[in-house]
Amino acid sequence: MTSHGLEYEGCNFFRQRLVLSTLSGKRVRIKGIRSRDDNPGLRDFEASFIRLLDKVTNGTKIEINQTGTVLFYQPGLLLGGTIEHDCNPQRSIGYYLEGLLMLAAFMKTPLKATLKGVTNDPTDPSVDLLKTTALPLLKQFGIDGDGLEMKVWTSRGMAPGGGGEVIFSCPIRRTLRPVQLTEPGKIKRIRGIAYSVRVSPQMANRIVDSARSVINKFIPDIYIYTDHLKGANSGKSPGFGLVLAAETQKGFFLSAELSSAPQGQGPTILPEDLGKNCAKLLLEEIHRGGCVDSTNQSLALLFMTLGQQDVSKVLLGPLSPYTVEFLRHIRDFFQIMFKMEAKPPLEDERKGGEKVLMTCVGVGFSNISKVTK
C-alpha cells in the first residue's frame, strides 16, 4: 500500500482493477502498461473502457502519463442514468458489458445504457451469451424486476466493422442477498441461437443441423433459433455464429459459443464445423459443471463478496485463471478470503469434472448513493 492506494503493474486484468476500485472506493495506480512493447501504453479499447466508467460515475479522477504506460484512477460515486457509448471495435460490446454488469446494481439512478460497436466476436463473450447466463445469475442475488434487460436492439455487428447496437438496463438495489447455490441438478433442456449476417440465410440452418447431430445423442429437448439479419440491421461485416445454453433442473445455465473469424483474419470455418465444435464446447462446459459457468465465475464471486454479512456458498467447476486472479484482487480491495473445498466426483455418479465449493462471508456492502424515497 502506498499513499496512492493500491499499486499494480502491467496491462493484464485491467477491468478487474478499475471495477473493484470503483466499488471499494480505493484509489489505484497501474504502472508499466506495455512499457516494453513497440507500441507502448493503453490500447484504444482500454481507453474506451475508462471513458465508459467516467460516464457512469461522478467525480472520478483519471490521470494518464504521456506515453500511456502509467494510469492513476481515483473513483467517484456511481451515478447511472441514461448513457450512450461507442465501444471500440477492437473488442466486442461483451468486454464493456462485463464491467457494467458488476457495477449496474449499485448506481444512484437505474442504468439504461446503449452501447454501439461489435456485438459478436471470437474473443469476448457475446451479448446473447451474457443475456442467457449473466441475467439469471443477477436474479439469484435479488437483482430482478421489470427494469432488467439486455438485448441486441436494432442491429448485430460482427468484427471487424461493428455497427451493432445493444441496450442494457438494470434496476438498483441497496443490498444483495446471500446465496446458497450448491446443487446444480441435471440438465433438462438446451436452447440456442444461430445468427448470420451478410451471408446466405442457409448458413444458420447448416449450423443448427450440425450442432443438433452432436447433442441429440444426449437429450431430446433442444431448440435452436435462427436469427438472420439483412439490410441496415446487419451491421458492417459478414459473419455467423452459434450460442448454446444448457438449463439445469434448478434453473442454472451453462453456456458456450463460437463465432466465425472476422473477415480477412484467421482461417475460414465451415458452418458445419462451427456447429459441431460449439456443441462440443457446451458438452465440455457441462462436464466442468457447477452452478455458474466459467464465463460468469468472477461475477458470482464478486456478488458473494458484496453480499450482506452472512454466509454465501456457490459450487463452481474448475476455476479459470482469470477467476483465480480475480480472487487475489478481491483480497486486495475488500480483504475477503474465500474458503475453497475441492469436491471430487464420486465413483458411481456421472457428475463430470472436479468441483470447487466456494464459501465466504459478505462485507455487507450497501449502496449509499441509492435515492431512498
From TrEMBL:
InterPro entries associated with the record? RNA3'-term_phos_cycl_insert (IPR013791), RNA3'_phos_cyclase_dom (IPR023797), RNA3'_phos_cyclase_dom_sf (IPR037136), RNA3'_term_phos_cyc (IPR000228), RNA3'_term_phos_cyc_type_2 (IPR016443), RNA3'_term_phos_cycl-like_CS (IPR020719), RNA3'P_cycl/enolpyr_Trfase_a/b (IPR013792), RPTC_insert (IPR036553)
What processes in GO biological process is this protein linked to? endonucleolytic cleavage of tricistronic rRNA transcript (SSU-rRNA, 5.8S rRNA, LSU-rRNA)
> What's one Pfam family the UniProt record gives for this protein?
RTC
Q: Name one GO cellular component term.
A: nucleolus
Domain of life, source organism: Eukaryota
Question: Gene3D superfamilies annotated for this entry?
Answer: RNA 3'-terminal phosphate cyclase domain (3.65.10.20), RNA 3'-terminal phosphate cyclase, insert domain (3.30.360.20)
Domain called RNA 3'-terminal phosphate cyclase: residue spans:
7-340
Q: What is this protein called?
A: RNA terminal phosphate cyclase like 1
Which species does this protein come from?
Gadus morhua (Atlantic cod)
